[in-house]
Amino acid sequence: MPLNLDKSWLTHLEPEFDEAYMKALKTFLLEEKQQGHEIYPKSTDVFNALDHTPFDKVKVVILGQDPYHGPGQAHGLSFSVQKGVTVPPSLKNIYKELSTDIEGFKTPDHGNLTQWADQGVLLLNATLTVRARTPGSHQKKGWEMFTDKIITELSEKRTGLVFILWGAYAQKKIVLIDTSKHTVIIAPHPSPFSAYTGFFGSQPFSKTNAQLIKQGERPIDWQIS
Question: What integer is the mean pLDDT of 124-133?
Fold first, then answer.
């Protein structure tokens, strides 16, 4: 786990790499590789969410759970896949909601959400790695403690952020967020199993932009080119 983080994040997170849980996580990841397991995303993409969205540039946080576990999918941004890879079902539903929530939105032909990240949308998974073709395989190994620290630091040191929490897992993180100075948008997960129970029609993207405009900030251009 190279410390190639954006400097703004290192200011807040560098001490975490000396914590016992992080050392145990590093040992676990090394053992996974020594046993011949392929890990996604590739090591240079593990901290992509932080590298594309510096601490002081974060406007919005969209929380995911695990990286995608199929070949070529994960690249360090929650819900996002690399160009050339089939758009996953949850992201297809996100695009469907965007098409009704944001006037003029046109569904892109790929699932790479880097353009959101570069505008200040932190696309953060709770777990930052996964064993190939084995969903959930790196849960409860330490990543959650690290990403909880990220959420806590943002909550404590920043004001006026918008946290988008889709599904029960993400919504548990609300205890880490100071709702007196941040906006929290809650809806069911966009997966095919729950999208029709309240995700569709929840308008998270227009609500986010309305809040940003209210605060005098530039809204997010959700269109992906």
Answer: 97
pTM of the shown model: 0.96
Q: pLDDT tens-digit profile of 19-31?
A: 999 999 999 999 9
pLDDT at 87: 97
Clarify whether 66 is annotated catalytic. yes
Q: What six digits make up the tokens of 109?
A: 């032909």
Catalytic residue among 66, 101, 118, 148: 66
Give the separation between CA 1 and CA 29, rounded to whole angstroms. Answer: 9
Determine the length of the chain.
225
CA distance 173 to 189: 14
Instruction: Please name the residues in contact with 29: beta carbons below 8 A apart, sequence gap of 6 or more.
Output: 1, 39, 129, 138
Task: Pull the structure tokens for residue 47.
Answer: 């901290």
Going from the C-alpha of 148 to that of each of 12, 75, 92, 98, 113, the distances in angstroms are: 13, 20, 27, 28, 22
Q: What is the DSSP letter of 57?
A: G
